[in-house]
Amino acid sequence: MLPRMAPRFREIADGVHLGALLPAGLLHTVLLEGPDGDVVVDAGLPWSGRRLAALLRGRDVAEHAVTHAHGDHVGASAWLCRHTGARLAMGEADASRFEDGRIDTHAGAFGRVVLGSLARERRPVDRRLREGDRVAGFEVLTVPGHSPGTLALWRADDRVLVVGDGPVNVSTDPAAPRWLPLPRGLHHDPAGADASRRRLGALSPALVVAMHGFPVTATHRWAEAAGAHVPRRPGRA
Ligand SMILES: [Zn+2]
Predict the structure, then answer these.
(1) What is the CATH number of domain 10-225?
(2) Ligand 1 mean position, distance from CA 76 (Å)
(3) What is the tens place of the pLDDT at every residue in 119-147?
(4) Which domain of life is it from (predicted)?
(5) Where in the chain are the domains?
(6) Which of 42, 75, 108, 208 sits at a 20 to 30 Å CA gap from 85?
(7) Per-residue DSSP letters for 93-137?
């Protein structure tokens, strides 16, 4: 019998590594190489630990940063911090909810009942992140709506944007995205989520890396899907 290939990170921008969690293509974790050590962004579902352990073998993780405290992003966060000794960083408006095990920030019942129940394991948050804080050389942007404390990470030098949720691209070709529509009830505040996504689209990123779906380089299309009005260059399809 052939040995199964261990999951590996794939470097998709300078010091930005994408790791596939399961279900494949729909859930990822991201590792950022920062000046103060490696940072793991989001930790998937409660049963993602085994895969995270394989991805992170040989890595020294200094911090685990969370884009938002929903069960499919923090399901294995407590495990990850225990396993690696990393400190936990998260948006200040989600931190107390995570610590108390109150993941009630979905407008719809499916999110509240199903996704909320995936985030029950608690631990203290070591760093409460705010707009303008730094994570592995990225700037923290507070983009509330999907949850009250949702964050995005932005590196202006090469215009790389890391988001937790956003338009979900199911195409493996980053230049030709295809979107998976999701119910708006997964947001805490759908109108707020729209406004935050417009803000991110207006940054004109060169690469968008999301925890759901595949990276996108056709970012004018990402911005359109996110609801941002971006000026098109004449003649562009
Ligand atoms: Zn999610």
Answers:
(1) 3.60.15.10
(2) 13
(3) 678 899 999 999 999 999 999 999 999 99
(4) Bacteria
(5) 10-225
(6) 208
(7) HHHHHHHHT-----SSHHIIIIIGGGG------SEEE-TT-EETT
